[in-house]
Amino acid sequence: MIRASGVGVAIDGTRILDDVTVSVPQPRVAVIGANGSGKSTFARTLNGLIAPTEGALEVAGIDVVREPKSARGAVGFLFSNPDAQILMPTPAEDIALSLKAAGVPRALRAERAIEALRGYGLAEHAHQPAYSLSGGQKQLLALAAVLVRRPRVLVADEPTTLLDLGNARMIGDLLTGGVAEQVVLVTHDLELAARCDVCLRFDGGRLVQAGEPSEVIAAYRAEFA
Amino acid sequence: MIRASGVGVAIDGTRILDDVTVSVPQPRVAVIGANGSGKSTFARTLNGLIAPTEGALEVAGIDVVREPKSARGAVGFLFSNPDAQILMPTPAEDIALSLKAAGVPRALRAERAIEALRGYGLAEHAHQPAYSLSGGQKQLLALAAVLVRRPRVLVADEPTTLLDLGNARMIGDLLTGGVAEQVVLVTHDLELAARCDVCLRFDGGRLVQAGEPSEVIAAYRAEFA
Amino acid sequence: MRDTWEARDIARVAVFAAIIVVLGLVGPIPVPGLVPITAQTLGVMLAGVVLGAKRGGAAVLIVFALVAIGLPMLSGGRGGLGVFVGPTAGYLIGWLPAAVVAGLVAHAGARRLSWWRVALGAVVGGIGCAYACGIPGVALATGIPLPEAALSALAFLPGDAIKAVVATLLAVSLYRAYPPAFPRAVRRERVAR
Amino acid sequence: MIPLVLPRRTPLHRVPAGWKLASLVLLSVAGAVASSTALGAAIALVATVAVYVAGGIGIREWARQLWRVKWIIVLLAAMQAIFLGWEAAVTGTARIVAIVLLAAAVTLTTPVADMLDALERCLTPLRIARVDPARVAFTIALTIAIIPVISQLGAQIREAQRARGVRLGVRWIVTMLVGALRHADDVGDALTARGVA
Ligand SMILES: Nc1ncnc2c1ncn2[C@@H]1O[C@H](COP(=O)(O)OP(=O)(O)OP(=O)(O)O)[C@@H](O)[C@H]1O
Ligand SMILES: Nc1ncnc2c1ncn2[C@@H]1O[C@H](COP(=O)(O)OP(=O)(O)OP(=O)(O)O)[C@@H](O)[C@H]1O
Ligand SMILES: O=C(O)CCCC[C@@H]1SC[C@@H]2NC(=O)N[C@@H]21
Ligand SMILES: [Mg+2]
Ligand SMILES: [Mg+2]
């Protein structure tokens, strides 16, 4: 459940997100809109990466403005560039890092990491340099590293960029298949957006539409027809 | 006109492109296929960035294997990561760099650069740091820097990644609107591929299908159904 | 004022350490000699004048750590503990004060980046400090008297002078291309984006 | 980026990293004090052979390491001979070569992960200066993960120059710095989002 009321973000005096008010109880949420419309900024407020400069925001029952730290614990974030989110030299170490942040004792981490990698078909690559993985495998690893902490909400910013049809489907299936209580997908991939339960459309830093994905996508397409 | 016969690329003993034989006279060529199937490798051979280790390749009447230098002059290349191809601090300087390489005398470069930027709606950003442009604007700038040299053939590797519907259409319209004698678009965006005259599909380093875009795309989609 | 390190600072230190390493790979081929002539010193100067004394120095320390734990991160694929006990160890250790002093001179008290401060930082830090550690290091390890050891450092002077000039040009150009690369204090008059 | 560690296991691999490091420090101090005579220098060189052979590294690896520092040996000997005379040149060079080879022996037989742990332990006293050793070790690992990305960025920039038919000279470094620092911001965000920094 996301509850935003009058959420705004201003950086150096320019307002890049303005008066976003919405309640989203649906489990699968798509966020669409033009480049620079404020989608990523909104997504980042959801787990406290950016603090709203005005308004109130609650995600999974947590007041994000007052408790950004617990928001980050409860809300996982997947970025579009896997190179920037794979933080350790090998997949096993990368997953272990997440486990460490989740407070799993050192002795258990290695085994639990391999187990998690197995779930994504990456166990055989556990100890090979992460940079040598393919694009799709890297994105899978990034997803695994986020999900291993069992976040209640998962926010993903353009997760299928640069992936082929097969990999995009696989990641899309995972993301829309109930990996968390609520999943928020920021995307330009309108096929992916159509698979969600509700769709939010941003324009010029404002939330301009929220509703049935088919309708919202049609309205977005109509803008450029 | 692209004429490839038995083109292969082996790096460190692994063959990443294998026996590609095809003649493509159509002006708009789409290249699709799975991640790691060899699309980018094929695209790079077209302007001599990668030399085929076997076979013969001719682009716009130039033997790419024997004359990689003149191939690079006649074949422009647009990469998907604009950050790596915007080489100067400001848009005006970046275009001027291309003009310098094209042999335009120094005195004329500044003016010609602004003129070129105007054609892409970037004139007012000519002297602002390039990093502060939006994703779509950066991609436009990269395209302008390639096209200002008037290449006979343009190869673009995933040019619409991260762009919104409007920007993707705009770049797509430009690329499919006759900016060069022949345009080769490597892409995961099947809507873009559908707008071409012919479509090549790669799989495992081999060209597996070449023909009517609708048919080739349907076959590609069927693989993952 | 307490200087707090955020996640982005850690990332910048790591990225700059990586840049110093990468400059060792693409840099000029090290000529055979006691101490290699390397583009990595250019990276050390840049770390100081871009990130500032603390973060620039931290980036150099990370490179030391990578070398010490046995990774071939120095030019020519060298590394391991050997380079810290050999006759050239002084020059290597000198990278730390080099980056710190270059950063101090280039940034301290400045409200915006000026080319002459950067140039001074590159010369005093990148050349002065490196030699101030390297020459005694050679003397200590070999027993050669200091003046003679100092004489041998002249071999690097032309290269290092060029690197100081290049570091200045690059830093000034970076200031135009991407002001957020620099600490806020030296870009107060710029619009931050 | 292949570590300088020998891939095969030797008996010296089993010795804890801390012990090896401590002995290296002791030996280098002892060497500096004791080997200023011809006999001392000879003992130092023989001792390194002994360490390599007894530790299971072997005399061939010893010779390989010696060959790697051949230029240092030649120049060192020449300089010392000019300034200090022949005898001092021989003993001085032997002493330095011995200690460099011993240090190399530690590197050759200690896996990077063990060395990283040892380093972390060495840094514990720095807690007083508010330096967290675990955070330092983490930054080192982060750097190892980032190096291939930066090196790839460098390759992309070189490729873009070739494709556009332009030559930037050293100015390519500016493009790399911009890309690398923007990448750093993305990495920083990922660190925060993952709750690890
Ligand atoms: N740190 C910042 N400082 C200043 N302006 C910013 C900052 N971050 C974003 N902006 C601006 O805020 C606006 C919204 O950016 P945001 O990244 O949220 O857009 P987006 O909808 O995610 O776009 P895209 O589809 O291109 O990812 C843009 O105009 C951007 O330039
Ligand atoms: N320089 C290289 N050295 C070794 N292998 C390489 C190199 N470049 C590419 N490859 C390998 O060649 C294969 C084809 O790569 P290529 O980049 O052409 O694929 P692609 O079809 O463009 O994939 P994507 O859709 O992910 O961009 C991949 O398996 C890749 O790992
Ligand atoms: O790679 C190493 O072992 C350390 C090299 C130290 C190089 C010194 S720093 C000052 C001088 N300028 C150079 O180009 N090389 C030396
Ligand atoms: Mg965005
Ligand atoms: Mg590709």
TrEMBL record, chains A, B:
InterPro entries: AAA+_ATPase (IPR003593), ABC_transporter-like_ATP-bd (IPR003439), ABC_transporter-like_CS (IPR017871), ABC_transpr_CbiO/EcfA_su (IPR015856), ECF_ABC_transporter_ATP-bd (IPR050095), P-loop_NTPase (IPR027417)
This protein's UniProt keywords: ATP-binding, Nucleotide-binding, Transport
Pfam families found in the cross-reference section: ABC_tran (PF00005)
Entry keyword annotation includes ATP-binding: yes
Any GO molecular function: ATP binding
Domain ABC transporter span(s) in chain numbering: 2-225
Source superkingdom: Bacteria
Database matches in PANTHER family: ENERGY-COUPLING FACTOR TRANSPORTER ATP-BINDING PROTEIN ECFA1 (PTHR43553:SF24), HEAVY METAL TRANSPORTER (PTHR43553)
Homology family: Belongs to the ABC transporter superfamily.
Name of the protein described by the UniProt record: Cobalt ABC transporter ATP-binding protein
Species: Microbacterium nanhaiense
TrEMBL record, chain C:
Organismal lineage: Bacteria, Bacillati, Actinomycetota, Actinomycetes, Micrococcales
Topology term for the membrane: Multi-pass membrane protein
Protein name as it appears in the record: Biotin transporter
Gene3D superfamilies: 1.10.1760.20
Predominant subcellular localization, coarse grouping: membrane
InterPro entries per UniProt: BioY
PANTHER family: BIOTIN TRANSPORTER BIOY (PTHR34295), BIOTIN TRANSPORTER BIOY-RELATED (PTHR34295:SF4)
Keyword set, alphabetical order: Cell membrane, Membrane, Transmembrane, Transmembrane helix, Transport
Keyword 4Fe-4S set for record: no
One Pfam family matching this protein: BioY
Protein family membership: Belongs to the BioY family.
Residue ranges crossing the lipid bilayer per the database entry: 9-27, 33-51, 58-75, 81-106, 118-141, 161-178
Compartments, as annotated in UniProt: Cell membrane
Native species: Microbacterium nanhaiense
From TrEMBL, chain D:
Signal peptide (UniProt feature, chain positions): none
Membrane topology value: Multi-pass membrane protein
Presence of keyword Transmembrane: yes
Source organism, top-level taxon: Bacteria
Pfam families xrefs: CbiQ
Transmembrane portions of the chain: 21-54, 66-84, 96-116, 136-155
Principal subcellular localization: membrane
Compartments, as annotated in UniProt: Membrane
Alphabetized InterPro entries for the sequence: ABC/ECF_trnsptr_transmembrane
The UniProt record lists the keyword Nucleotide-binding: no
CDD domains xrefs: EcfT (cd16914)
Alphabetical UniProt keywords: Membrane, Transmembrane, Transmembrane helix
Identification of the protein by name: Cobalt ABC transporter permease
